[in-house]
Design a protein that fits this description.
Elements: H1 2-12, H2 15-34, H3 39-52, H4 56-64, H5 66-83, H6 85-103, H7 107-126
Amino acid sequence: VESGAAGLAATMATEADLAEVQRCYDRLDSVIREQAVGAGEDFDFHLAVARASRNQFFISAIASMQPQVLVSMNLMRSLSLIKSMERQHLVQAEHALVLDALRRKDAAGAGSAMRLHLENARNRMFGQ
């Protein structure tokens, strides 16, 4: 769902949508500097990407997953604080790839970047 939303967002996002995704990305940067957990800010980034798709299915699907996603994000981001700042920077670099593809209006690149980010998050969670 999220990779589809990112792909569509690359073609549908307005300048205001891109500014909101950027704002969410910048808030995550602040979270990293403050060494805070930032699960809500991370979710907000993903939801902003979905909203930029302008597709109500993607927006509703991702918004409806918020409680479950926040539990896993809180766990993962808390572990990132314990493991290293490098891990937090790695996650943020993955977000940057999504944002960059959105700006370039690269649908395939945005979908692939989001898919890779989610696969990496799963691997980080389960140690694969």
